[in-house]
Amino acid sequence: MSPEPAPGNPPAGGECVRTELAVTGMTCANCALAVERVLRKKVPGVSFAQVNLATEHATVEFDPAVAGHGDLVAAIRRAGYDVIEEVETAGTADPEREREARAAEARRERRKVLVGLLFTVPLFALSMGRDFGLFGPWAYAAWIPWLFLALATPVQIHLGGDFVRGGWHSLRNGIANMDLLVALGSFTAFFFSLAVAIALRFGWQGLGDHVYFETAAMILTLIKTGKYLEARAKGRTSAALRALADLRPRTARLLDGDEEREVPLAEVRPGDRLRVRPGEQIPTDGVVITGRSAVDESLLTGESVPVEKEPGARVVGGTINREGLLTVEARAVGSATVLAQIVRLVEEAQASRAPIQRLADRVSAVFVPVVVAIALGAFFFWWLAAGAGLTAGLLRMVAVLVIACPCALGLATPTAVLVGTGRGAEAGILFRSAEALERAGSLRTVVLDKTGTLTVGTPEVAAVVPAAGISETRLLTLAAIAERGSEHPLATAVVREAQRRELGLGEPEAFTALPGEGIVATVEGVEVAVGSARFLASRGVTTEALDAAAARLEAEAHTLLWAALDGELGGLLGVRDHLRSGSAAAVSELRALGLDLLLLSGDRLPVAEAVAREVGIGSAIAEVRPDGKVAEIERLQEAGRGPVAMVGDGVNDAPALARAEVGVALATGADVAREAADITILHADLRDVPRAIRLSRATLRIIRQNLFWAFFYNVLLLPVAAGVLYPFTALPTALRELHPVLAAAAMAASSFTVVSNSLRLRHASLGGTSAAPAPAPKADAR
User: Fold this and answer.
1) Among the residues of 132-238, which ranges form H helices?
2) Given this model, what pLDDT does residue 235 score?
3) Does residue 47 sit in helix, strand or coil?
4) Residues near 392 by Cβ (< 8 Å), separated by ≥ 6?
5) 599: which strand partners?
6) Confidence at residue 209, expressed as pLDDT on a 0 to 100 scale
7) Region of 616 on the Ramachandran plot (φ > 0 left; ψ -120 to 50 alpha; else beta)
8) Which of 449, 649, 678, 685 is catalytic?
9) Residue 68 belongs to a domain with what CATH number?
10) In total, how many domains does the chain have?
């Protein structure tokens, strides 16, 4: 999802940089909105600011020529919140400091909860015992309200102070938040009780004789306990990202001449030589200089079988050296490493905002003022209009204030996105944004590229058919020398086959590549043209003599390369690209999900149809150039078959990946940051495409459940707290006259329920049956 510039605050002309700030002190969605507003409107040079309540991170883009990191931190602190540290989205910052700071904050909150319980439990027990006549006459002595005051005051100061400060800052920021509601509710009960105690001390009965100190204390303690439990649950939502970050080694064995010394990984620079012993993690991305070993690359490939490495082989930081001693030259360090890119992709996805969240944001922005208005309305109605008295009006007002829960609305979407993207990362599925995660769940059509997607992308020459008078060896030798100047995968396959047969290959005297058509080269004085039948026909060369052989090879899914020698037909080469393991199973699972499937290929129609039949796809479009793939995606969208996903290798498919509603790229080894892709399949396993769609659908289902619960909770219980059920005498008293303590308990439980529901995604099943695919409809082409 593209960041939107802050209105009225464009960049000052310099190049913007992106940073991420770990923010503390936010309690609800309105806090996040307040931090966003402060950054956008109070800091010159900020072009984009977005705050995620679930991760408690602020993503900011700003012009460093106008504002600095200190300006951002100062603005957040003036707004009443704090910043732990700068956490760069590139992933270079060590997350340990933030983790330790969050843990310290959690310990402080736990101590406050314990203090609250220490004073509130005896206060509540004494108060309830007195109300229900469980104690003797001493419980009604004149000094009892002052004992209650003594027990309630530490709670109001130690716990209530946080809510008062938060509420005050929210008023200054112009966005009222949950802290304000809690502070108003608890302190209204506290100061009303204080007024009653003082009045009774001087013999005045005008305010009644009942105090509600236990209500004020219980409100604060219950809500503080709920927020503490919520924070612990939120900590579990980011477990997958922490596990990824923990894969990064902390140190490396640096070789300085013949000396070896252990240094922090941050000190390693490109070009440094590193020693890796058996059983150790490879510190950073690089190339093997000396030694041979087998390396566990399951981090990238998902395969448990180690990969053999020898001098010249690429290795990736975080993978494990299983056997031999290696010397590795560092090539990429810090944020440039593959693992850092993976962490960055997950962090950016978790920090982004899903479109479905916009409704909750709009509601949250007006929620608190509406609640305050309802509370005041309930107060005056029960006090004046209904004649129930001042005390009844105050209790109804306090119940409304403390039962309202904007935090459940604010957490409904981001916690599900946080867990969903983390679950995807564990499975090797990287979502670029929350929007991509949401859109994948509403797909109707999936378009699959053939080469490198359904097939492995390393074609091999399977047949050499020379024309009359030309030997197979002569044809292959001339074609291979001519193709040496081309980087096309088919050209590489021809050269590789000639080398396998140990044919002597020189260099072409001249070479011309005609993109999308073929090549023309001069080899040993012979003009060699290699390409499609159409290409040879454009040069006046007929292929009729080998048409029967060509039809047979195409029916077997061979791609044809025709060769002409000095303007005469020289023969043809049949190139076969093997299907990826799991392609047919993936297609079967996609069809089981109710999706329309389409195969796109630059090959001729018979080849495309043969592959489509083999994997079980009913529709194939052939002879499509890279620029034509975009037109095909647009045609499907205009025909009402969208949203459309395009699945490709992320290289020549980039325009089509970008044009589709969801672009899915299969990563190849170390290349995980496909810029055009919304989803990157890290393990290059096509079966991860239906898994990604299942995960998206499961995440959307959880988000809808969370939003329903948050809206249902507030819409149902706010009127109950205001007293609309009071006339219905058949109902239980606890429901008719919802006590503020019960309201506080319900409020504390609501956001905890939302977070706990999101955590169910950690155990969501992504797999499908890998049985043989069901028969597909007959392939057709359009």
Assistant:
1) 144-158, 160-173, 178-201, 213-237
2) 65
3) strand
4) 382, 383, 386
5) 448, 620
6) 66
7) left
8) 449
9) 3.30.70.100
10) 4
**Domain end position, chosen among 87, 114, 135:** 87
Answer yes or no: are the C-beta atoms of 34 and 48 closer than 8 Å.
Answer: no
Task: Please state, in angstroms and rounded to a whole number, the distance separating the CA atoms of residues 558 and 492.
Answer: 16
Closest residue by Cα to residue 321 from 353, 275, 362, 355: 275
Which residue did the predictor score with more confidence, 184 or 377?
A: 377
Domain end residue (candidates: 87, 112, 131): 87
In a domain, 44, yes or no: yes
State whether 443 and 467 are in the same domain.
no
- Same domain for 595 and 547, yes or no, is no
CB contact at 8 A, 397 and 384: no
On the CB side of 501, CA atoms within 13 Å amount to 19
User: 11 preceded by cis ω (within 30°)?
Assistant: no
Q: Could you tell me if residue 547 is inside a domain?
A: yes
Residues pairing with 320 in the sheet: 281, 296
- Is the pTM for the entire model greater than 0.85? no
Cβ–Cβ under 8 Å, residues 110 and 176: no
Lookup: tokens for 195: 């007024």
Q: Does the annotation count 780 as an active-site position?
A: no
The HSE-up count of residue 366 (CA atoms within 13 Å, CB side) is 4
pLDDT at 625 over 80: no
Task: For residue 576, give every residue at least 6 positions away whose Cβ sits within 8 Å of its Cβ, in sequence order, or none.
Answer: 459, 460, 462, 556, 557, 558, 559
Structure tokens at 678: 């919304």
- Joined together, the tokens standing for residue 17 give 């940089």
Strands annotated E in 601-733: 619-621, 644-648, 662-666, 679-681
Burial 170-181 (b: 16+ CB within 10 A, else e): beebebbbbbbb
